[in-house]
Amino acid sequence: MSSSDSVRVTLGGLQVSVLIATFIYAVSCFQAFLYWRSRFNDRLGVRILVSNESLRIFETTHTLCFWFYLFTITVKYYGLPEELERRHWSITMSIVFHGLITGCVQSYYSYRVYILSGGRKLIPIMCWIGCLIEGCGSVGIAVVLYHVGPVVFAADWELFPTLNIAVDLTVGVVNTTTLCYYLLQRKTGVRS
């Protein structure tokens, strides 16, 4: 693959991922808006958690970091493919915000598992530890990425983000599976 083909593939993937991330961000904002407008009879704590302003700020900042990086690469440094090899604070910060967002969301679902399980602590504690590992891992990845640069990071540190993604997926699968299990138990009235 030639250098220009490589740049086209990289920029195409970047643009598509930023557009998809922006669409998902818009959907989550709309869901929070609909929740508040529907005036559910949930406790105030749950209502605040659903539209948590700090989480909204994290997600907004995360999306803005993506757009700033896209602007930097495709407009500010148009025609300079070597710019893809430089360090950019916006990508580094988006990794940190991703870890914060995912940690907050999965921690909430772990709390729901705790409530639905009738106070059983083993699975929620394991998931909370996973959330903490992922959050710290995201900060660690961001620090290493910023210090060594994207080229060296991609060549020498690829195991680090792979492990962080594996922890993220594991916590998500455990939370989802456990929530489905307890909700199904509640619906059928069968207790283990």
Structural summary, described in words:
This protein is mainly alpha-helical and 192 residues long. It has one domain. The protein has seven helices and no strands. The longest helix has 36 residues, at 3-38. The chain starts with a helix and ends with a helix.
Average pLDDT figure: 83
* Topology, number of strands: 0
Order of helices and strands: HHHHHHH
* Low confidence ranges: none
- Coarse structural class: mainly alpha
- Rg from C-alpha positions? 20 Å
Instruction: Kindly report how far apart the N and C termini lie.
Output: 57 Å
Shape, per Cα inertia axes: globular
Largest sheet: none
The number of helical segments is 7
Helix content: over 70%
Keywords: Membrane, Transmembrane, Transmembrane helix
Transmembrane segments: 12-36, 57-79, 91-111, 123-145, 165-184
List the SSEs and their pairings.
Blueprint: H1 3-38, H2 44-50, H3 53-76, H4 89-116, H5 122-148, H6 150-156, H7 159-188
Helix pairs in contact: 1-3, 3-4, 4-5, 4-7, 5-6, 5-7
